[in-house]
Amino acid sequence: MSRLGDLIRTERIRQKLTPKQVARKCGVSESYLMAVEAGTRIIGDDQARRILKTIGLKQQNEAEFTLDDIAATVDLAQVRPALAAKAAAPKPKEAEKVASTEEKDEGVAGSIWLDALQSVLKRVPVMNAVMKPVRYKLVPVENGRIEGANPDKVFFFLAPDDSMRGFRIHRGDTVLTVPAQSPVDGAVMLINYGEHRYLRKIRVLNDRQVLLQSYDREYEQETADIADVGFLARCVQVTFEL
């Protein structure tokens, strides 16, 4: 079974819908839907969105994450024990009413992957130069960590300029960062220096000084006292938009 097909089937069952009901609402045959769930039928993005919307997905949060993010990163085999435990846990009637209301109001926030997959995926903010979130990305969580760090402490930084393009980071690229409060030799780091926030490659000279390296049209470096630099995070991954 494909991940997307597994997601469709799991969410359909959670919504207590039969294949025939979903197929009729989506304008496809029951056999087509069953083949999609089984992973034996290739399905287009538009059709996948139509089916998922029919079984409870609301698309107002699509700017925050996409179906592609979910299908590419979620392995439901890891999550079924959590789903089973959640289903087996007794709930007071009042709690059931509250949960039902929240699901109705929150759409995706109350659906199966954010309810039960929170230990597998994390919505990580993309921060701009003034450290305000501009959007979010879904990132896999492995053994409770993201790149070895607390998932609540990592974030993406939106490169504000081309000062690091010689190090393959261009304006508009998103850089995944993990906390680091001291210089890491050879690493690209997010720093505060001279009342500005920069991405810079770090070279440790001694226990008191570092080189801050940048590379736009030409290579530049500046010697700085470690005491004058605020080290915020270490950059571990860069992504760009085509």
Question: What does this 3D model show about the protein?
Answer:
By secondary structure, the protein is α+β, with helices and mostly antiparallel strands. The protein folds into two domains: about 5-115, 434 Repressor (Amino-terminal Domain) (Orthogonal Bundle); about 125-240, Umud Fragment, subunit A (Ribbon), CATH 2.10.109. The protein has helices at about 5-15, 20-25, 30-40, 45-55, 65-75, 80-90, 95-105, 110-115, and strands spanning about 120-125, 135-140, 155-160, 175-180, 190-195, 195-205, 210-215, 220-225, 230-240. A hairpin with a 4-residue loop joins β6 and β7. The protein is elongated. The chain starts with a helix and ends with a strand.
List key phrases describing it.
single chain, 242 residues, alpha+beta, 434 Repressor (Amino-terminal Domain), Umud Fragment, subunit A, 2 domains, 9-stranded mixed beta sheet, 8 helices, 9 strands, 31% helix
